[in-house]
Every structure is written in C-alpha cells, then in structure tokens.
Amino acid sequence: MRHADFVIVTGLSGAGKSQAMQALEDLHYFCIDNLPPSLLPPLVELHAQSGQERKYAVAIDVRVREYFSDLRDTLEWLETSGYSYHIIFLDCNDNTLITRFSETRRPHPLVKGQTGPESIFATIATERRLLSEARQMADVIIDTTDLRPVDLRMRLQEIYQGVSLHDALRVDIFSFGYKFGTPIDADIIFDVRFIPNPFYVDELRPLTGEDEKVAAYVLENPKTEEFLQRFTELVGILVPEYAREGKTGLSIGIGCTGGQHRSVAVSIEMAKRLKAKGIKARYRHRELTRTGS
After folding, report:
1. Does residue 293 belong to any structural domain of this protein?
2. The whole model's pTM is what?
C-alpha cells in the first residue's frame, strides 16, 4: 500500500487559504476545506481501502477552533500509522488583513454583528492566540502580506514540485561603496573596511577585486579568512530558518570605502563558499560596470 501524503493548510482568516487550496488542487491534490482534525483518520482509512495513490490537502481554520485540541493527537496518529504530512501556516499583518476584509466585504469569521476597526484588531489578536499552537507545529510559515495570489501559487509550486525550501532560497550578495551611500535593499549588511585596503598599494590601486592580484591581497589576510569562515557558518544557519518563514531570497550587502577592491573580492569568495555548501548564491557589484554571476 502506498501511504497518503497530507498537506494541512491553516492560518489566519484572510491570509490566503482559499488561494492556497486552489493552487494545491492544480498540483493534483484532493482538496478538502474546513475538515475537523478528528475526521482525518477515517479519511486515511478510506484512502487505504481504495488502494489509490492520492495526495490530500486539508484546510483547517478558526471556524473549527473547537477541534484544534484534537489536531496534535491526530498528527501523532498519522505518524505512528506511517503516513506523511506537512503543515503550512499562512500569516499576514493586521493592517493587510483588515484591508482584505474591507475589499471583499466579508466579515471576519469570529465577528458577530457590526464592529469598528478597534474591535476587528482585537478579533485578529484573539485569532492569533487561538492559532498559536498550530503555528508552532507548522513545517513552513508563509507570510502573505506582500504576496499576490500568483506569488503564493509560485511559492507552493516551489515547495511541492520537488524543490526543497532550503534549495528554493537564493542568496544575493552584492558589493558596494559606503562613500556612494548605504544600500536600502539589503536584508543584512557587512562592513569589510577592517581589511587592509589595496587602494594604498600603487600596483593594485587601478585594479578591482575581480583581479587575481587584488583578490590574493585581500583573501590571504588572516582576518579575512576568519571573517569568511564565520560568515559561511552564519548563513548556513540562517538559510533554513529564513526558508521556513517563507522567504525565497536573502540579500547581503558587503561594503568597503569605494566598492572597488575589498568588498568585490570578498563578495565573489563568499558566493563560492556558499555554493560549495549547496546554497544557491550569486554575486554582483553595485559600483562596477561589469557584474559577476
């Protein structure tokens, strides 16, 4: 008998469960909306009797909040019975949720009667508390605040078409010069001005960090090597955690004074080391006309 694969979709009302279920249906999942967790075992047994190879997607939301106490027991039953499952939790910030309810003219499922904005905020806070345990149990959390429906669909395709969360996340490393301004589009910024500057070496000044001589001067420094080792370890820790939170890209800025020598050489070497660890990484240089990949 082939074991069933179950995707359990839960999260905040208005965070995109309907769009997620539609996307999973397109990925050939048999979708069941608003199923109480206690009914999952009978569903599994029916699957076993049919002998069919089928994947299931089950949506559970706050409207069946009285069943959330059964969710952990049901998941334990699935594990002991040898069935696989994966929990997706859809999150979103409060202001975006309120805007979505306003645009669709749909009341929040916990709201009874007419309420003002303050009451809606309180209702969302209540829902977050109700779903806190489910969020902790989730295998992946997707924040849909800035996601269009098509973006959510693409995210689910990345997850369920054989691409792991770790492999789906790409690290974008770019060099820059502080004298031209600190970038505003970086998730993380590292300052490498602690490395001796090739600018003060007459032979190296007209070159850039893409040149082997400059790269050797920068990378052979013991301080640079220690930094690169610690950096690689840090990113190795961050990537799976960012992926779990639904992030598909991590942007890292590497800065030196002019963005010509140290930051360029370090960015290239960083990308090489991350690739060697199996992490998708690429580099580019903000202050140079020629870019790497």
Report:
1. no
2. 0.55
